[in-house]
Amino acid sequence: MNARGEPEAPRVVMCVDMDAFYASVELRRHPEWRDVPMWVGGASRGVVLSANYPARAYGVRGGMSSAQARRLCPHAVCAPPDFDAYSEVSAGIVAILETFTARVECASIDEAYLDLTGAGRTVGPPALVGERLRAIVHDEQGIACSVGIGPNRLVAKMATNSAKPDGLLEVHPEEVLAFLHPQPVEHLVGIGDSTAAKLRPLGVRTVADLAALPRSALQRDFGLRAGALLHDLAWGRDSSRVVAKPGERGVGCQETFGHDLADDAGVLAELLRVVVKVASRMRAAGVLGRTITLNLRYADFSTVSRALTLAAPTDVTDEFYAAARRLYAQLRTPSARVRRVGVRVTGLVDRALVCLQPTLDEPDYGWRDAERAADNVIRRFGPQAVRRAALTRPVPKRPAPA
User: Do 381 and 256 share a structural domain?
Assistant: First the structure.
């Protein structure tokens, strides 16, 4: 029950995990490596940070020494890590997640949890949200992610692990035990190899075997706290909450250019590309926004930003773009080369709760109607079905480092 004595909505937690994240970012720059074994990390010394799936077929795993990985797969390609690139992609993905809910917790650079409890009326069924989210991440960032949905963090994480690679799995509350209990006990989140080894003498091979042990027996062998935790995990219980970072919900997108741009025309074209994505995602989420923030990153990695509040909330691309151009004129440093632009819209309100007052000279059908029609065409035929003429040239890819 909530504070008003009403029954609480069933919890819905989503876990989003990027597949082989560091390796996937590198594969954007080196598509020729996609079908060959590769890892990110040291070539012969150090550790493997991330390996693609062809390398994993040879037994190469993240955290493994590079020397061991080289013995397992001598012909693999090794890429040195580029943490600036990984951080930029991660920030872009977080901006996508925050389109759907303000309750986003980043567990790491490549994993996040979303609390979608009670959000079905505004963003849609959880599975549909997950598929939309995966499609946007793939379209904007060029990498795949796996999504798990469950009644708590534990089940959501386990569902994500089962959905990998590049998949989605939803486990409803009544399906939790049927999903968890057949799995090997070492697959249970929170149980490592050492704990699994201690459980084997007790006859525990599966999660069901663990669930069959009395809580008191587990507490006797593992301690009061650890034993109680093991018992709860085996029964799919997890009371931990998604803890969102402080801040206001917004809809954002950023674009790192294929090469640094010095001409205003080129930057403004890419700025329009970003604004189109933001406005489209707002219309899909059923929200209007009033405050737009522009973020510029220059070639020397210095960053500047400025915000502007509109007279009324909107979801029209041209209104956001006009505001973004004003902000760009205020922020632009002559002759400086721009590496990235980002746009974020805050002050969000549910479109159904806003009455938009038309002007006397406004036609019966305007840009908002045209954009919604274009959105419908894109949803049916793909992102290239309808494009603005200014955006028909492809985005140049960032050259591979020498």
Answer: yes
